[in-house]
Specification:
single chain, mainly beta, Neuraminidase, four-stranded antiparallel sheet, 2 helices, disordered N terminus
């Protein structure tokens, strides 16, 4: 299970630096319009503190002059960068161990930002959840549950200083993991686990009573999409399309209780295909996606402002070449 989850994360890592600028443009409130975005993808120079290894895994936007990106460098040092409207700056962040990785970041205000991931236990190398918080002045590690001593967080969402969600996987028991911040502490919350190897990769929230988490589970034959919903009381599994084999969801974005998008990949029997699913307030439906060719195509991250403006980003793989992939609706 650990290898399969890390493998999916590794694919995301390969594309994160290439697609980051596109995610920022798509997610920026008040930024470029849907028609403008199609022709304004621009690469920005980020900070590379290591001469050999630097990668960004997640991004969050507060305004055109304030954005955050997180990842790692030197194969095991947390990397946090801030966009001030002009350039990216490296910001110091905690590193509790010799291997530390940040996978996701979410911001509810300029003084309330969360970054999540995992670090290696110095004694036995097992994974420990890593949550770090920005209070407007500095990043500090905040304690978070690590059930069974081998856990990792893949995504985070926040709507206020007293409501944030983090999702991931308990690698020891191979079950999904959801944690909640109530303004005082992180606590683990029960989550559905319909099969084996249940993993949650992404989470989004629009309010204290509306949140979505996505990932996959193993049904004994292949991976299946896993979508879970928070209604203010409990997390429940919601049926989701399974268009092929080895279906996995990596990213999710919601704008209201009746509009959400999820992206990932599936195997059509020959190659990997981009997977897009949409929530209309009643059910999740499979959406046809551009498939530009190459041996495999995947979508890993998502940003949306409405039911008619959503961007999915990922990559296409062919003959050992990786190219960026961006799709837009509608």
């Amino acid at each position: 299970m650990g290898a399969r989850w890390i493998g999916g994360r590794t694919l995301r890592v390969l594309l994160a630096a290439l697609t980051l600028a596109g995610v920022l443009v798509a997610a920026t409130p008040g930024g470029a319009s849907a028609s403008a975005c199609a022709s304004c993808w621009t690469e920005f120079q980020t900070v590379n503190p290591s001469p050999h290894y630097n990668v960004l895994h997640g991004a969050a936007v507060l305004s055109p002059s304030s954005a955050w990106a997180v990842g790692r460098y030197r194969n095991g040092t947390t990397l946090i960068e801030h966009w001030n409207g002009t350039s990216w700056k490296h910001v110091s962040s905690p590193n509790p161990s010799h291997v530390n990785i940040l996978n996701g970041v979410a911001a509810s205000s300029a003084t309330d930002i969360w970054a999540v991931g995992f670090y290696a236990n110095a004694d036995n190398g097992t994974g420990q959840t890593l949550t770090e918080h920005w209070n407007g002045t500095r990043w500090a590690q905040v304690p978070s549950p690590s059930p069974d001593g081998d856990s990792s967080l893949g995504g985070v969402a926040a709507t206020s200083a007293s409501n944030a969600w983090a999702v991931g996987v308990d690698l020891f028991t191979e079950v999904s993991m959801i944690e909640h911040w109530n303004g005082t502490a992180w606590t683990q919350v029960p989550s559905p686990n319909p099969g084996s190897g249940d993993t949650l990769n992404g989470v989004t929230a629009t309010s204290a009573s509306n949140a979505w988490a996505v990932g996959s589970y193993f049904n004994g034959t292949s991976e299946r999409t896993l979508i879970e919903h928070w209604n203010g009381t409990a997390w429940t599994q919601v049926p989701s399309p399974v268009p092929g084999a080895d279906d996995t969801l990596y990213g999710v974005a919601a704008t209201s209780s009746s509009n959400a998008w999820a992206v990932g990949s599936y195997d059509n029997g020959t190659t990997g295909q981009p997977l897009i699913e949409h929530w209309n307030g009643t059910s999740w439906r499979h959406q046809l996606s551009p498939n530009p060719g190459g041996s495999d195509n995947y979508l890993y991250a998502l940003a949306a402002t409405s039911s008619s403006n959503a961007w999915g980003v990922g990559g296409t793989y062919s003959d050992n070449v990786i190219d960026t992939l961006a799709v837009h609706c509608c």
